[in-house]
Amino acid sequence: MLANCGERALREDGFSLLEIMVALALMALTLTLVSANAVQMLGRWQESSEFRDVRNRISGLRVRAYVAQQPFNLDPSSVGVLGLNEGWSVETDTPVRYLATGTCLGGALRITAPSGRSELIRLDPPDCVARAG
What we know:
Elements: H1 2-12, H2 17-59, H3 61-68, E1 72-74, E2 89-91, E3 96-98, E4 107-112, E5 118-123, E6 130-132
Antiparallel strand pairs: 1-3, 2-4, 4-5, 5-6
């Protein structure tokens, strides 16, 4: 009887290999699902940050015109001044005109990311702060 109690105590102590394998499989599945969503979320955050950076660069163009004391037009052929990353593009129906005084005559731009997501940017005169929408 005493020998039987010792064997039973050993069997109940700890987890079986099957239990450990099931727990590890569930953790691996959970980690896979979470990491896939985390990668997508980080990509969206980075893209949103880049859109914000482009809006800030556009808002600063009036200062550039004032400092250079030269008017210029912002159109698809002159978007190099924005320093866009590879794959980004800007479209506009009519060029956005900046005067040498730093005044902007207004307009609208469509910025497109490499993912295909685009954002319409409104530029309201005279300050032309870039606003999404």
